[in-house]
Amino acid sequence: MSNEYKNIGFIVAENAEAAQKLALKKFPQLKEGNYKLVQDNDCLDTWFSSWLWPVSVFDGINNPDNDDINYYYPTDDLVTAPEIIFFWVARMIIAGEEYRQEEPFKNVYFTGIVRDKLGKKMSKSLGNSPDPIELMNKYGADGVRMGMLLSSPAGNDLLFDEALCEQGRNFCNKIWNAFRLVKGWEVNTELKQSIENQITIDWFSSVLMQVVLETDHLFSKYRLSEALMMIYKAFWDNFCAWYLEIIKPEFGKPIDSQTYTKTTYFFEELLKLLHPFMPFITEELFHAISDKNESIMFAKLNICNTFDEKIIVDFEKTKEIIANIRTIRQQKNISPKEQLHLQITGNHHSENDKVIIKLANVAIENGGEKSACAVPFMIGTTEYAVIVGNLVNPEEEIVKMEDEVKYLEGFLKSVNAKLNNEKFVANAKPEIVENERKKLSDAESKIKTLQDNISKLKK
Questions:
Q1: Are 160 and 123 in contact (CB under 8 A)?
Q2: Is 170 exposed, middle or buried (CB count within 10 Å of its CB: 0-12, 13-18, 19+)?
Q3: CA 93, CA 87: separation in Å to the nearest integer?
Q4: How do strand 114-115 and strand 158-159 relate by DSSP bridges?
């Protein structure tokens, strides 16, 4: 801004009219003399250099056909924050189209804003932002990474909770302890593989391939926290809690070489899945399982694009049977070392019976006369009964079963009320109505089983 003698200052305004008003307000002396506003013709947008970043970082402005920019431009993904969509992202695309006639990236992944448990944006001024170095010293780098990733669903803000970092640290410990367990086994090359180990390997092969394919799908949709949670469950629940528990040899005894080889293969595949989320522990264990000449980041997953869904479904039923037997032991304070008898009435697939026998410590009886000293449970339409004999008090069992009958009768009443409601049956989706009818059938079957057992105990 100048008058006929000198430049006296500057103002910033949206347009010339607004600039006039601001100038007179800021410089009152201008009212008495002649002056004019001069727009600066030697300035750039604040973000101008950032517009050109995808091109200029490879010297694509001065040397537009060099090897680097021809190789790296365009890229696939840009990861950034949503508040700079206009300031940076859109302008990079415009500049890319102008100088390279091609957009600089195909996809933009917007990270969420990190907030505390109360929903407030984390900042130093508010004092609600933890020191990342302290977090890493406390929970480990992989533990903190996992805690952050578990709490950051695609497209949403990140509600940070330090408890998730603790969960990440616990998971690291679980992975390390599983490795120590497997590496501590003695391998016998002459030992024959057991039937239960064969069954379990077939099952986990399908589980692993299902996880690999689903992870690939989730990655394509940028649903990273969901992918991590699925891999986490596959490792902690299916691999550690079930697979290793089944194939684990008795204390002091060796494991057959076929099962051991397959187990280390499964372990390595799980580490590959986890590596993008937990790079340090996975790299360490990848080399500790067996000598490798390259980093895990270059290792490829083995993908066959198919898995046996029936094996997975059947094994889920097997796990449910074992869980019910263990619950009965816990409720009745029966030692896991005490072998029990399991009676089965109805449709039961016996392929996995060896697994049930090993993990639940039971002898299986198909059909036969129902024992009065048995605790029943239902899985679908199949009735299972754990014979407890004189290990429990019959009078206490009668009271518990009568209480369960009362509960089921109340449940039946509510289901019948729905099914007798013409509006519900007419307007609800067919699958919902069918699900209510299945609930009715299952409850009626359970009540009949409980009443039969009560009658036998009372004799």
A1: no
A2: middle
A3: 11
A4: parallel
| Short-list 426, 419, 452, 427, CA closest to 345 | 452
The Cα–Cα gap between 30 and 23 comes to: 8
CB-based contacts of 335, cutoff 8 Å, min separation 6: 329
Contacts of 39 (CB under 8 A, 6+ apart): none
Q: Are 354 and 199 in contact (CB under 8 A)?
A: yes
Q: What is the per-residue pLDDT across 329-364, written as a single tens digit (0 to 9) for each?
A: 888 888 888 899 898 988 888 889 999 999 999 999
C-alpha angle 360/361/365, rounded to 5°?
Answer: 95
User: Phi and psi at residue 140, in whole multiples of 5°?
Assistant: 85, 150
Per-residue burial over 357-381, b if 16 or more Cβ lie within 10 Å, else e, is: bbbbbbebeeeeebbbbbbbbbbee
Distances (CA, A) of 254 to 245, 383, 457: 15, 37, 45
Q: How far is CA 425 from the centre of its chain?
A: 36
Of residues 104, 83, 84, 106, the one with CA closest to residue 94: 104
Q: Are the beta carbons of 154 and 229 closer than 8 angstroms?
A: no
Q: Which amino acid is at 322?
A: I
Q: Is residue 1 pLDDT above 70, yes or no?
A: no
Q: Are 244 and 182 in contact (CB under 8 A)?
A: yes
Q: Is the separation of the CB atoms in 272 and 247 below 8 Å?
A: no
Q: One-letter amino acid identity for 9?
A: G
- pLDDT at res. 11: 86
Please give the Cα distance from 268 to 205 (Å, whole number): 13
- Give how far Cα 303 sits from Cα of 51, 81, 224, 264, Å: 40, 34, 20, 17
- Angstrom distance (rounded) from CA 117 to CA 107: 30
Question: Is the pLDDT confidence value at 5 over 60?
Answer: no
Hunting for tokens 């299972």 — which residue is that? Answer: 384
Q: For residues 259 and 199, what is the distance between their CA atoms, to the nearest angstrom? A: 11
Q: Using one digit for the tens of pLDDT, what is the confidence trace for 363-411?
A: 998 876 666 677 888 888 888 988 886 666 677 777 888 888 889 888 8
Write down the residue that tokens 């009435």 correspond to: 345
What are 278's two structure tokens?
């937990």
Pairing of strands 114-115, 105-110: unpaired
Structure tokens at 405: 């009958």
Pairing status of strand 255-256 against strand 187-188: parallel
Going by their DSSP bridges, the two strands 35-36 and 2-3 should be labelled as antiparallel
Give the DSSP letter of residue 89. Answer: I
State yes or no: cis peptide before 74, omega within 30 of 0: yes
